[in-house]
Amino acid sequence: MTEVEELRNQLRQFAEERDWDQFHSPKNLAMALAGEAGELLENFQWLTEEQSRRPSPEVLAAAGEEIADVLLYLIRLADKHPTSRQDGRRGEVPYQARNRPQSTEPSMDLITRSSTGPRAIGLLAPSSGAPPPAIVDDRVIGQTVPTAGTALLWRGDFQNARQMLTAMAKRADRHPRKAKKPSSPAEAFHLHRQAQAQRARTLGMLLIELDADYGIALRRAPDIRQACVEAWGPGEGSTVVSLRELLGLVGAHEWRAKGIPIPALDGRIHPHYGVFTPIRREYVDLVAQAPLPQALSSLGLAFDVGTGTGVLAAVLARRGIARVVATDQDPRALACARENVDRLGLAKRVEVVEADLFPEGRAALVVCNPPWVPARPATPIERGIYDPESRMLRGFLAGLAAHLVPGGEGWLVLSDLAEHLGLRSREGFLAMIAAAGLEVAGRLDAKPRHPKASDVSDPLHGARAAEVTSLWRLTARPPNLP
Ligand SMILES: C[S@@+](CC[C@H](N)C(=O)[O-])C[C@H]1O[C@@H](n2cnc3c(N)ncnc32)[C@H](O)[C@@H]1O
Protein backbone atom coordinates (compact mmCIF):
# COMPACT_ATOMS: atom_id res chain seq x y z
CA MET A 1 0.00 0.00 0.00
CA THR A 2 1.40 3.44 -0.90
CA GLU A 3 1.62 6.21 1.70
CA VAL A 4 -1.15 8.08 -0.06
CA GLU A 5 -3.46 5.07 0.02
CA GLU A 6 -2.65 4.69 3.68
CA LEU A 7 -3.56 8.32 4.20
CA ARG A 8 -6.79 7.87 2.23
CA ASN A 9 -7.68 4.98 4.55
CA GLN A 10 -6.86 7.05 7.64
CA LEU A 11 -9.15 9.80 6.36
CA ARG A 12 -11.93 7.27 5.78
CA GLN A 13 -11.55 5.98 9.31
CA PHE A 14 -11.36 9.50 10.75
CA ALA A 15 -14.61 10.48 9.02
CA GLU A 16 -16.30 7.21 9.92
CA GLU A 17 -15.48 7.52 13.63
CA ARG A 18 -17.10 10.96 13.72
CA ASP A 19 -19.99 10.08 11.44
CA TRP A 20 -18.83 12.83 9.06
CA ASP A 21 -19.28 10.71 5.95
CA GLN A 22 -22.78 12.17 5.61
CA PHE A 23 -21.24 15.66 5.12
CA HIS A 24 -18.49 14.58 2.73
CA SER A 25 -20.36 14.91 -0.56
CA PRO A 26 -18.18 15.79 -3.59
CA LYS A 27 -19.82 19.24 -3.60
CA ASN A 28 -18.94 19.94 0.06
CA LEU A 29 -15.44 18.55 -0.33
CA ALA A 30 -14.78 20.61 -3.46
CA MET A 31 -15.96 23.74 -1.60
CA ALA A 32 -13.80 22.93 1.42
CA LEU A 33 -10.83 22.32 -0.88
CA ALA A 34 -11.34 25.70 -2.56
CA GLY A 35 -11.62 27.36 0.87
CA GLU A 36 -8.34 25.81 2.04
CA ALA A 37 -6.63 26.75 -1.24
CA GLY A 38 -7.79 30.35 -0.61
CA GLU A 39 -6.31 30.24 2.88
CA LEU A 40 -3.07 28.93 1.41
CA LEU A 41 -3.05 31.80 -1.08
CA GLU A 42 -3.51 34.34 1.71
CA ASN A 43 -0.13 33.38 3.13
CA PHE A 44 1.66 34.30 -0.09
CA GLN A 45 -0.58 37.14 -1.31
CA TRP A 46 1.69 40.12 -0.55
CA LEU A 47 5.06 38.41 -0.73
CA THR A 48 7.64 38.94 -3.43
CA GLU A 49 8.75 35.99 -5.54
CA GLU A 50 11.90 35.79 -3.47
CA GLN A 51 10.05 35.91 -0.11
CA SER A 52 7.76 33.11 -1.20
CA ARG A 53 10.82 30.97 -2.02
CA ARG A 54 12.38 31.58 1.41
CA PRO A 55 9.37 31.82 3.72
CA SER A 56 9.64 33.29 7.22
CA PRO A 57 8.91 30.88 10.10
CA GLU A 58 5.33 32.11 10.45
CA VAL A 59 4.58 31.70 6.74
CA LEU A 60 6.31 28.35 6.83
CA ALA A 61 4.10 27.13 9.69
CA ALA A 62 0.83 28.61 8.43
CA ALA A 63 1.34 27.67 4.76
CA GLY A 64 2.48 24.19 5.75
CA GLU A 65 -0.77 23.72 7.58
CA GLU A 66 -2.83 24.93 4.63
CA ILE A 67 -0.88 22.82 2.12
CA ALA A 68 -1.56 19.80 4.31
CA ASP A 69 -5.27 20.68 4.51
CA VAL A 70 -5.48 21.09 0.72
CA LEU A 71 -3.81 17.74 0.23
CA LEU A 72 -6.14 16.03 2.70
CA TYR A 73 -9.29 17.47 1.10
CA LEU A 74 -8.03 16.58 -2.35
CA ILE A 75 -7.42 12.97 -1.36
CA ARG A 76 -10.80 12.79 0.33
CA LEU A 77 -12.49 14.31 -2.72
CA ALA A 78 -10.73 11.88 -5.05
CA ASP A 79 -11.90 9.08 -2.80
CA LYS A 80 -15.54 10.22 -2.72
CA HIS A 81 -15.86 11.38 -6.33
CA PRO A 82 -18.23 9.00 -8.18
CA THR A 83 -15.99 8.72 -11.30
CA SER A 84 -13.09 7.59 -9.17
CA ARG A 85 -15.10 4.51 -8.22
CA GLN A 86 -16.37 3.73 -11.73
CA ASP A 87 -12.94 4.21 -13.27
CA GLY A 88 -10.24 3.33 -10.78
CA ARG A 89 -7.54 4.93 -12.88
CA ARG A 90 -9.06 8.39 -12.67
CA GLY A 91 -9.43 8.11 -8.92
CA GLU A 92 -5.87 7.01 -8.54
CA VAL A 93 -4.22 9.77 -10.50
CA PRO A 94 -3.81 12.12 -7.56
CA TYR A 95 -2.44 9.34 -5.35
CA GLN A 96 0.19 8.18 -7.79
CA ALA A 97 1.21 11.57 -9.09
CA ARG A 98 1.50 13.10 -5.65
CA ASN A 99 2.92 10.19 -3.71
CA ARG A 100 5.89 11.13 -1.52
CA PRO A 101 7.00 14.63 -2.42
CA GLN A 102 10.68 14.53 -3.36
CA SER A 103 11.34 18.23 -2.92
CA THR A 104 13.60 19.33 -0.12
CA GLU A 105 11.58 22.55 0.29
CA PRO A 106 10.65 22.91 4.00
CA SER A 107 6.94 23.22 3.21
CA MET A 108 7.04 19.85 1.46
CA ASP A 109 8.64 18.40 4.53
CA LEU A 110 5.60 19.57 6.48
CA ILE A 111 3.30 17.74 4.08
CA THR A 112 5.26 14.54 4.43
CA ARG A 113 4.88 14.67 8.18
CA SER A 114 1.23 15.68 8.15
CA SER A 115 0.45 12.88 5.78
CA THR A 116 1.75 10.27 8.19
CA GLY A 117 -0.97 11.39 10.57
CA PRO A 118 -0.62 12.93 14.03
CA ARG A 119 2.27 11.49 15.99
CA ALA A 120 2.53 11.46 19.75
CA ILE A 121 5.64 13.36 20.66
CA GLY A 122 6.79 13.03 24.23
CA LEU A 123 10.42 13.21 25.10
CA LEU A 124 11.99 13.17 21.69
CA ALA A 125 15.75 12.88 21.44
CA PRO A 126 17.16 14.78 18.43
CA SER A 127 18.99 11.56 17.55
CA SER A 128 15.72 9.62 17.27
CA GLY A 129 15.68 9.95 13.49
CA ALA A 130 12.28 11.69 13.52
CA PRO A 131 11.95 14.46 10.91
CA PRO A 132 12.90 17.85 12.33
CA PRO A 133 9.93 19.99 13.37
CA ALA A 134 9.17 23.36 11.78
CA ILE A 135 10.80 26.18 13.71
CA VAL A 136 8.40 28.89 14.89
CA ASP A 137 8.64 31.92 17.15
CA ASP A 138 6.65 34.94 18.46
CA ARG A 139 5.73 36.07 14.95
CA VAL A 140 3.08 33.33 14.66
CA ILE A 141 1.16 34.69 17.67
CA GLY A 142 -2.21 36.01 16.54
CA GLN A 143 -1.99 34.18 13.22
CA THR A 144 -3.58 30.91 12.17
CA VAL A 145 -2.78 28.46 14.92
CA PRO A 146 -1.08 25.39 13.50
CA THR A 147 -2.89 22.09 13.96
CA ALA A 148 -2.08 18.45 14.57
CA GLY A 149 0.25 16.72 12.18
CA THR A 150 2.84 19.47 12.17
CA ALA A 151 5.36 19.47 15.00
CA LEU A 152 6.51 22.97 15.87
CA LEU A 153 9.73 23.75 17.66
CA TRP A 154 9.32 27.01 19.56
CA ARG A 155 12.24 29.45 19.46
CA GLY A 156 10.54 32.61 20.77
CA ASP A 157 9.50 33.98 24.14
CA PHE A 158 8.52 31.22 26.58
CA GLN A 159 5.39 32.97 27.86
CA ASN A 160 4.23 33.52 24.27
CA ALA A 161 4.58 29.79 23.73
CA ARG A 162 2.18 29.26 26.63
CA GLN A 163 -0.22 31.70 25.02
CA MET A 164 0.01 29.80 21.77
CA LEU A 165 -0.69 26.52 23.56
CA THR A 166 -3.82 28.07 25.10
CA ALA A 167 -4.95 29.14 21.63
CA MET A 168 -4.29 25.65 20.27
CA ALA A 169 -6.31 24.18 23.17
CA LYS A 170 -9.26 26.46 22.39
CA ARG A 171 -9.17 25.39 18.80
CA ALA A 172 -8.90 21.71 19.73
CA ASP A 173 -11.88 22.08 22.06
CA ARG A 174 -14.06 23.48 19.30
CA HIS A 175 -13.96 20.26 17.27
CA PRO A 176 -16.02 17.95 19.49
CA ARG A 177 -19.17 19.97 18.69
CA LYS A 178 -19.33 18.22 15.33
CA ALA A 179 -18.77 14.85 16.98
CA LYS A 180 -21.11 11.92 16.75
CA LYS A 181 -23.89 11.66 19.35
CA PRO A 182 -23.17 8.53 21.38
CA SER A 183 -25.84 5.87 21.47
CA SER A 184 -24.82 4.45 24.87
CA PRO A 185 -22.75 5.46 27.93
CA ALA A 186 -20.02 3.01 26.87
CA GLU A 187 -19.83 4.66 23.46
CA ALA A 188 -19.79 8.10 25.11
CA PHE A 189 -16.82 6.95 27.20
CA HIS A 190 -14.90 5.62 24.19
CA LEU A 191 -15.59 8.74 22.13
CA HIS A 192 -14.56 10.92 25.08
CA ARG A 193 -11.27 9.05 25.43
CA GLN A 194 -10.67 9.22 21.67
CA ALA A 195 -11.25 12.98 21.76
CA GLN A 196 -8.93 13.35 24.76
CA ALA A 197 -6.20 11.37 22.98
CA GLN A 198 -6.60 13.45 19.84
CA ARG A 199 -6.44 16.65 21.90
CA ALA A 200 -3.30 15.45 23.68
CA ARG A 201 -1.66 14.61 20.33
CA THR A 202 -2.50 18.02 18.90
CA LEU A 203 -1.29 19.96 21.92
CA GLY A 204 1.79 17.74 22.18
CA MET A 205 3.01 19.12 18.85
CA LEU A 206 4.35 22.36 20.32
CA LEU A 207 7.90 21.56 21.37
CA ILE A 208 10.55 23.25 23.51
CA GLU A 209 14.26 22.48 23.52
CA LEU A 210 15.93 21.60 26.81
CA ASP A 211 19.68 21.78 27.48
CA ALA A 212 21.56 18.81 28.87
CA ASP A 213 20.74 19.99 32.42
CA TYR A 214 17.09 20.84 31.52
CA GLY A 215 17.75 24.59 31.21
CA ILE A 216 15.58 26.48 28.67
CA ALA A 217 17.39 29.06 26.55
CA LEU A 218 14.30 31.15 25.76
CA ARG A 219 13.28 34.63 26.90
CA ARG A 220 11.12 34.68 30.07
CA ALA A 221 11.60 30.94 30.58
CA PRO A 222 11.21 29.67 34.15
CA ASP A 223 13.86 27.53 35.80
CA ILE A 224 12.30 24.09 35.68
CA ARG A 225 15.48 22.07 36.20
CA GLN A 226 14.44 20.70 39.57
CA ALA A 227 10.97 19.71 38.29
CA CYS A 228 12.56 17.80 35.38
CA VAL A 229 15.09 16.01 37.58
CA GLU A 230 12.24 14.94 39.90
CA ALA A 231 10.25 13.52 36.99
CA TRP A 232 12.95 12.04 34.75
CA GLY A 233 16.15 11.86 36.79
CA PRO A 234 19.37 13.62 35.75
CA GLY A 235 19.49 14.95 32.16
CA GLU A 236 21.44 13.07 29.51
CA GLY A 237 22.08 15.48 26.65
CA SER A 238 19.79 18.04 25.12
CA THR A 239 16.22 16.99 24.36
CA VAL A 240 13.04 18.26 22.78
CA VAL A 241 9.88 17.94 24.82
CA SER A 242 6.27 19.02 24.37
CA LEU A 243 5.42 22.23 26.20
CA ARG A 244 2.21 20.64 27.44
CA GLU A 245 4.10 17.82 29.12
CA LEU A 246 6.54 20.34 30.55
CA LEU A 247 3.76 22.40 32.12
CA GLY A 248 2.22 19.24 33.60
CA LEU A 249 5.53 18.41 35.15
CA VAL A 250 5.89 21.89 36.64
CA GLY A 251 2.40 21.50 38.17
CA ALA A 252 3.43 18.13 39.62
CA HIS A 253 6.56 19.72 41.10
CA GLU A 254 4.44 22.38 42.82
CA TRP A 255 2.10 19.76 44.26
CA ARG A 256 5.05 17.77 45.49
CA ALA A 257 6.57 20.82 47.14
CA LYS A 258 3.36 22.09 48.79
CA GLY A 259 1.58 18.80 49.38
CA ILE A 260 -2.18 18.35 49.46
CA PRO A 261 -4.07 18.53 52.75
CA ILE A 262 -5.66 15.27 53.94
CA PRO A 263 -8.10 16.01 56.78
CA ALA A 264 -8.21 12.32 57.81
CA LEU A 265 -4.46 12.56 58.50
CA ASP A 266 -4.50 16.05 59.87
CA GLY A 267 -1.49 16.42 57.62
CA ARG A 268 -0.36 16.62 54.03
CA ILE A 269 0.53 14.10 51.35
CA HIS A 270 3.25 15.11 48.88
CA PRO A 271 2.63 13.29 45.60
CA HIS A 272 5.51 12.58 43.22
CA TYR A 273 5.26 12.98 39.46
CA GLY A 274 3.37 10.05 37.93
CA VAL A 275 2.03 8.70 41.24
CA PHE A 276 -1.74 8.45 41.78
CA THR A 277 -2.75 11.50 43.79
CA PRO A 278 -5.54 11.38 46.42
CA ILE A 279 -7.43 14.46 45.20
CA ARG A 280 -10.75 12.71 45.73
CA ARG A 281 -11.17 12.81 49.47
CA GLU A 282 -14.28 10.66 49.82
CA TYR A 283 -12.44 7.36 49.48
CA VAL A 284 -9.80 8.37 52.04
CA ASP A 285 -12.58 9.32 54.47
CA LEU A 286 -14.22 5.90 53.97
CA VAL A 287 -10.99 4.19 55.04
CA ALA A 288 -10.74 6.59 57.99
CA GLN A 289 -14.31 5.82 59.14
CA ALA A 290 -14.99 2.10 58.49
CA PRO A 291 -15.20 -0.02 61.68
CA LEU A 292 -11.91 -1.82 62.30
CA PRO A 293 -12.18 -5.65 62.36
CA GLN A 294 -12.00 -7.41 65.73
CA ALA A 295 -9.13 -9.57 64.47
CA LEU A 296 -6.80 -6.56 64.79
CA SER A 297 -6.89 -6.88 68.57
CA SER A 298 -5.04 -10.22 68.38
CA LEU A 299 -2.82 -9.34 65.37
CA GLY A 300 -2.08 -5.64 64.88
CA LEU A 301 -1.02 -6.02 61.25
CA ALA A 302 -2.57 -4.53 58.08
CA PHE A 303 -1.57 -4.58 54.40
CA ASP A 304 -2.10 -1.72 51.96
CA VAL A 305 -1.98 -3.24 48.48
CA GLY A 306 -0.93 -0.74 45.77
CA THR A 307 -0.09 2.10 48.13
CA GLY A 308 0.66 4.93 45.63
CA THR A 309 1.50 7.98 47.77
CA GLY A 310 1.10 5.85 50.93
CA VAL A 311 -2.02 7.77 51.94
CA LEU A 312 -4.16 4.80 53.03
CA ALA A 313 -1.27 3.09 54.87
CA ALA A 314 -0.74 6.36 56.76
CA VAL A 315 -4.46 6.60 57.61
CA LEU A 316 -4.44 3.02 58.98
CA ALA A 317 -1.35 3.75 61.09
CA ARG A 318 -2.95 6.95 62.41
CA ARG A 319 -5.99 4.88 63.37
CA GLY A 320 -3.73 3.00 65.77
CA ILE A 321 -2.86 -0.18 63.85
CA ALA A 322 0.54 -1.23 65.18
CA ARG A 323 2.11 -2.23 61.86
CA VAL A 324 1.23 -1.67 58.22
CA VAL A 325 3.00 -3.22 55.25
CA ALA A 326 2.38 -1.20 52.09
CA THR A 327 3.20 -2.55 48.61
CA ASP A 328 3.55 -1.17 45.13
CA GLN A 329 5.30 -2.14 41.92
CA ASP A 330 6.05 1.34 40.64
CA PRO A 331 9.45 2.67 41.80
CA ARG A 332 8.10 6.23 41.82
CA ALA A 333 5.23 5.20 44.12
CA LEU A 334 7.58 3.29 46.43
CA ALA A 335 9.88 6.32 46.82
CA CYS A 336 6.89 8.64 47.24
CA ALA A 337 5.19 6.47 49.89
CA ARG A 338 8.43 6.14 51.86
CA GLU A 339 8.94 9.89 51.83
CA ASN A 340 5.35 10.55 52.95
CA VAL A 341 5.35 8.08 55.85
CA ASP A 342 8.68 9.56 56.92
CA ARG A 343 7.37 13.13 56.84
CA LEU A 344 4.31 12.08 58.85
CA GLY A 345 6.53 10.45 61.49
CA LEU A 346 5.13 6.99 60.73
CA ALA A 347 8.24 5.30 59.35
CA LYS A 348 8.53 2.98 62.36
CA ARG A 349 4.98 1.64 61.83
CA VAL A 350 4.63 1.63 58.05
CA GLU A 351 6.97 -0.48 55.96
CA VAL A 352 6.89 0.14 52.19
CA VAL A 353 7.93 -2.88 50.11
CA GLU A 354 8.04 -3.74 46.44
CA ALA A 355 5.62 -6.60 45.68
CA ASP A 356 3.17 -7.77 43.07
CA LEU A 357 -0.06 -7.15 45.02
CA PHE A 358 0.33 -8.85 48.45
CA PRO A 359 3.35 -9.05 50.71
CA GLU A 360 4.24 -12.35 52.38
CA GLY A 361 1.93 -13.70 55.08
CA ARG A 362 -1.53 -12.89 56.43
CA ALA A 363 -2.98 -9.79 58.07
CA ALA A 364 -6.09 -8.86 60.04
CA LEU A 365 -6.92 -6.12 57.54
CA VAL A 366 -6.00 -5.84 53.85
CA VAL A 367 -6.89 -2.60 52.06
CA CYS A 368 -6.81 -2.05 48.30
CA ASN A 369 -7.87 0.83 46.09
CA PRO A 370 -7.33 -0.46 42.53
CA PRO A 371 -7.93 1.66 39.40
CA TRP A 372 -11.69 1.97 39.02
CA VAL A 373 -12.26 1.72 35.28
CA PRO A 374 -11.45 -1.33 33.14
CA ALA A 375 -9.76 0.24 30.12
CA ARG A 376 -6.33 0.51 28.58
CA PRO A 377 -4.30 3.44 29.95
CA ALA A 378 -3.10 5.73 27.14
CA THR A 379 -0.18 7.11 29.18
CA PRO A 380 1.73 5.87 32.25
CA ILE A 381 0.02 8.62 34.29
CA GLU A 382 -3.36 7.00 33.53
CA ARG A 383 -2.34 3.69 35.12
CA GLY A 384 -3.86 4.78 38.43
CA ILE A 385 -7.25 5.30 36.77
CA TYR A 386 -7.53 2.66 34.06
CA ASP A 387 -6.80 -1.02 34.56
CA PRO A 388 -7.00 -3.24 31.46
CA GLU A 389 -9.48 -6.11 32.03
CA SER A 390 -9.62 -5.17 35.74
CA ARG A 391 -6.33 -7.02 36.31
CA MET A 392 -5.57 -5.48 39.69
CA LEU A 393 -9.15 -5.84 40.95
CA ARG A 394 -9.27 -9.50 39.89
CA GLY A 395 -5.80 -10.20 41.32
CA PHE A 396 -6.73 -8.63 44.66
CA LEU A 397 -9.99 -10.58 44.95
CA ALA A 398 -8.37 -13.85 43.88
CA GLY A 399 -5.54 -13.59 46.45
CA LEU A 400 -7.37 -11.96 49.36
CA ALA A 401 -8.68 -15.02 51.24
CA ALA A 402 -5.17 -16.54 51.35
CA HIS A 403 -3.81 -13.34 53.00
CA LEU A 404 -6.39 -12.92 55.75
CA VAL A 405 -6.20 -14.37 59.27
CA PRO A 406 -9.49 -15.89 60.56
CA GLY A 407 -11.91 -13.05 61.24
CA GLY A 408 -9.82 -10.68 59.13
CA GLU A 409 -11.31 -8.28 56.58
CA GLY A 410 -10.44 -7.07 53.14
CA TRP A 411 -11.44 -3.49 52.36
CA LEU A 412 -11.91 -2.91 48.67
CA VAL A 413 -12.33 0.72 47.65
CA LEU A 414 -14.17 0.96 44.34
CA SER A 415 -16.43 3.42 42.58
CA ASP A 416 -19.32 2.19 40.45
CA LEU A 417 -18.49 4.63 37.61
CA ALA A 418 -17.57 1.66 35.38
CA GLU A 419 -21.05 0.23 35.96
CA HIS A 420 -22.72 3.50 34.92
CA LEU A 421 -20.51 3.56 31.83
CA GLY A 422 -21.59 0.02 30.92
CA LEU A 423 -18.03 -1.29 31.31
CA ARG A 424 -18.71 -3.59 34.27
CA SER A 425 -21.91 -5.07 35.67
CA ARG A 426 -22.84 -5.31 39.34
CA GLU A 427 -23.73 -8.99 38.84
CA GLY A 428 -20.34 -9.69 37.24
CA PHE A 429 -18.56 -7.94 40.10
CA LEU A 430 -20.49 -9.86 42.79
CA ALA A 431 -19.78 -13.08 40.89
CA MET A 432 -16.03 -12.27 41.02
CA ILE A 433 -16.29 -11.87 44.81
CA ALA A 434 -18.12 -15.19 45.20
CA ALA A 435 -15.72 -17.02 42.86
CA ALA A 436 -12.79 -15.85 45.01
CA GLY A 437 -14.33 -17.55 48.09
CA LEU A 438 -15.29 -14.22 49.65
CA GLU A 439 -18.42 -12.80 51.25
CA VAL A 440 -19.61 -9.22 51.61
CA ALA A 441 -19.72 -8.34 55.34
CA GLY A 442 -20.83 -4.77 54.75
CA ARG A 443 -20.49 -1.70 52.57
CA LEU A 444 -19.98 2.02 53.22
CA ASP A 445 -20.95 4.44 50.46
CA ALA A 446 -20.00 8.03 49.68
CA LYS A 447 -21.01 10.44 46.93
CA PRO A 448 -18.08 12.00 45.10
CA ARG A 449 -17.59 15.68 45.90
CA HIS A 450 -15.14 16.59 43.13
CA PRO A 451 -16.22 19.39 40.69
CA LYS A 452 -16.58 17.03 37.69
CA ALA A 453 -19.49 15.28 39.45
CA SER A 454 -21.64 18.38 38.94
CA ASP A 455 -20.23 19.62 35.62
CA VAL A 456 -23.15 19.35 33.18
CA SER A 457 -20.91 20.12 30.18
CA ASP A 458 -18.83 17.01 30.86
CA PRO A 459 -19.57 14.35 28.18
CA LEU A 460 -19.75 11.71 30.93
CA HIS A 461 -21.95 13.82 33.20
CA GLY A 462 -24.78 11.25 33.39
CA ALA A 463 -22.48 8.53 34.70
CA ARG A 464 -20.48 10.84 36.96
CA ALA A 465 -23.62 12.32 38.57
CA ALA A 466 -24.83 8.81 39.47
CA GLU A 467 -21.43 7.60 40.71
CA VAL A 468 -21.06 6.20 44.23
CA THR A 469 -17.72 5.30 45.82
CA SER A 470 -17.89 2.30 48.14
CA LEU A 471 -15.75 0.54 50.69
CA TRP A 472 -16.61 -3.15 50.42
CA ARG A 473 -15.91 -5.12 53.62
CA LEU A 474 -14.99 -8.61 52.46
CA THR A 475 -14.36 -11.73 54.52
CA ALA A 476 -13.20 -15.23 53.58
CA ARG A 477 -16.18 -17.62 53.24
CA PRO A 478 -15.88 -20.41 55.83
CA PRO A 479 -15.10 -23.77 54.19
CA ASN A 480 -18.17 -26.00 53.66
CA LEU A 481 -18.65 -28.28 56.61
CA PRO A 482 -18.84 -31.99 55.70
C1 LIG B 1 -5.48 3.66 42.10
S1 LIG B 1 -3.87 3.69 42.69
C2 LIG B 1 -4.20 3.78 44.45
C3 LIG B 1 -3.07 4.35 45.25
C4 LIG B 1 -3.37 4.54 46.74
N1 LIG B 1 -3.66 3.28 47.40
C5 LIG B 1 -4.52 5.48 46.96
O1 LIG B 1 -5.57 5.02 47.35
O2 LIG B 1 -4.37 6.67 46.74
C6 LIG B 1 -3.34 2.02 42.47
C7 LIG B 1 -1.89 1.77 42.85
O3 LIG B 1 -1.65 0.37 42.70
C8 LIG B 1 -0.37 0.16 42.16
N2 LIG B 1 -0.37 -1.17 41.53
C9 LIG B 1 -0.88 -1.52 40.33
N3 LIG B 1 -0.71 -2.83 40.11
C10 LIG B 1 -0.06 -3.32 41.20
C11 LIG B 1 0.40 -4.61 41.57
N4 LIG B 1 0.22 -5.67 40.78
N5 LIG B 1 1.04 -4.75 42.75
C12 LIG B 1 1.22 -3.69 43.57
N6 LIG B 1 0.80 -2.44 43.26
C13 LIG B 1 0.17 -2.26 42.10
C14 LIG B 1 -0.17 1.32 41.23
O4 LIG B 1 1.21 1.56 41.00
C15 LIG B 1 -0.84 2.46 42.00
O5 LIG B 1 0.08 3.11 42.82
Overall residue-averaged pLDDT value: 82
The whole-angstrom Rg is 27 Å
Strand order of the largest sheet: 9-8-7-10-11-13-12
Count the strands? 13
Count of DSSP helices? 18
Helix amount: 40-55%
What compounds are bound to the protein? S-adenosylmethionine
Describe the largest sheet. 7 strands, mixed
Distance between the termini: 67 Å
What is the 3D form? globular
The stretches of 5 or more residues where confidence is low (pLDDT under 50) are 84-130
* Class of secondary structure makeup: alpha/beta
Give the strand content.
5-15%
Q: What features would you describe in this structure?
A:
The chain has 482 residues and is α/β, with parallel strands linked by helices. It is 44% helix and 15% strand. It is built from 18 helices and 13 strands. The chain has helices at 3-18, 26-44, 49-53, 57-80, 82-86, 88-98, 106-115, 158-174, 185-203, 225-232, 243-258, 281-289, 311-318, 331-343, 391-400, 417-420, 426-435, 461-466, and strands at 134-136, 152-154, 206-210, 239-242, 260-262, 267-269, 301-305, 323-328, 350-354, 363-368, 404-415, 438-446, 469-476. A 7-stranded mixed beta sheet has the order 9-8-7-10-11-13-12, sandwiched between helices. A 4-stranded mixed beta sheet has the order 1-2-3-4. Helix 13 links the parallel strand 7 and strand 8. It is globular. The protein binds S-adenosylmethionine.
